[in-house]
Amino acid sequence: MDAAGVSSESAAIHQGAQALGTRRSFLKSAAVLGAGELIADTALGGQATADANYEFEIPRGMTLLTFRDAGQYCLGVKTPKGILDVRKAASRLKMPAPSSMDDLLRNGKGGMLKRLVDAAVAKAGSSNFLRPEQGLEYGPVVMNPEKIVMMGLNYRQHAIETHSPIPSKPVLFNKYNNSLNCHNGVIHLPTEVARQFDYEVELVVVFGKKAHNVSEDDALDYVAGYCTGNDFSARDLQTMTSQWMIGKTCDGFAPLGPYFVSADLVGDPNKLRLETRVNGEQRQDWNTDDMIFNCRQLISFISKVMTIIPGDILFTGTPQGVIMGKPKDQQVWLKSGDQIACSIEKLGELKFTLA
Fold it and tell me: Strand 82-85 vs strand 72-79: parallel, antiparallel, or unpaired?
């Protein structure tokens, strides 16, 4: 962050009102009752999950994803034998399960999901619940966060390369749900209003517990897991005024994925390598241990400003190596046809294409 192959149908899903409409269709059967409250969802064809008897638990020991099947977004669990289709497994085993990543996180159904996964893996003929990951059509890992909090200028060398002062306090701004995009997604560049398009690989924190005024020591206890993300930016819009929002919130400008990896499988979030490649050329290569404000500090600070709820996400900033940080005569902005790949250690590689 700074001062500054899918089908055409799949590409359209993640753009503008079509993307928002798809998410609304997906959530049609859900009643979101408020921050931290239950989502009543009958998508599995059974009793509303709001009535289920279970303890609130953050997901642990799992790598998850969202995929699209028959016009719907579905929750999947990565296993050594393939992707477990949670909806199909729950239906055939007649067990309760979260209907989506949002349902899982907001309603604390980590334990419920773990029981389903264990039962599905143990059952003879479990291949009926599995699908190969190759050829899977991904969705944004988190579909409907209440808040997408962004952190700017959080790596010292990045602040230096963009000729920005080193911040003494976290520099926060936001994106909106219209910007959410997915692994193997497409960003349709808004060339009617912008020309200077840039990449920013970022560690994304996904929250699993309500957090208000938490200490730095306890901050990571509120994290459900992490994702690879990209704070895609239109620099000419970003620098048009003192506010960065319009350069950051265009449709599809927040690719996220391919996986959500639970926090226990990641360990220390400030010891992870980050990389970006453009058309195969390495552009960014650094480590999260160089953050000016580490994840504990960011979470604690933000929780004192606003109440974080499960399902909220936090982009934690980008290291040096962005196009905006190059000398003016070396700035070759991204264009239609470019292919972006960004990866974070333990979290997987996020790919997307520009059109």
Answer: antiparallel
Residues carrying CATH 3.90.850.10, the chain? 148-354
**CATH class of segment(s) 148-354:** alpha beta
Cα(68)–Cα(168) distance, integer angstroms: 43
Give 10's pLDDT tier (boundaries 50, 70, 90): very low
Give Dmax over CA atoms of the chain in angstroms. Answer: 62
User: Position of tokens 């980590």?
Assistant: 110
Residues 92-120 have pLDDT tens digits of 999 999 999 999 999 999 999 999 999 99
Structural tokens at position 319: 């290291």
User: Alpha carbon of 255 to those of 3, 263, 303, 342, 343: distances in Å?
Assistant: 20, 20, 24, 10, 12
3-state secondary structure of 216: coil
**Which element (helix H / strand E) includes 276?**
strand 273-278
CA distance 108 to 104: 6
Give pTM, 2 decimals: 0.86
